[in-house]
Amino acid sequence: xxxxxxYELDGVTVGSTELSIVSGTTSLQTITTPGxxxxxxxxxxxxxGDEFKIRMYExxxxxxxxxxxxxxxxxxxxxxxxxxSPTFHLRNGWDMTIQKIAGTDRAFDASIRSAA
Length: 116
Known about the structure:
single chain; 116 residues; mainly beta; four-stranded antiparallel β-sheet
C-alpha cells in the first residue's frame, strides 16, 4: 500500500469564504481519485473568539448525484493540538474544506494523507 501526501496547505490564510484544502483556493473541487484519505490541520494560530468549520464532502455514487457534507467539525478558540480526522474511503467526487465562521482570518497548515 503506497502512502502519500497528495494535497497540502502551507500557511494559507483562511477567511469567511469556504476554501478547498485540496486546491488552496475558494474554487471547490470534485476529486475522483479513489483511496483512503485522512486530514490533518495545524490550527495553532487560532485565538480566543475564533471559530472555523472543517467540512468533508463526497458523492454517494459515481454516476450523477451531488457532493454532500458527510462530516462537519467546528474548531473554536485557541487550539494546542492538531485536528486529525478519521480515515475515509473516498472515490466518487470529494473535497475537504475550511471556513472562518467568527474571529480573525488565520493562516493554516494542512495535509491530506492518502493510502491508495
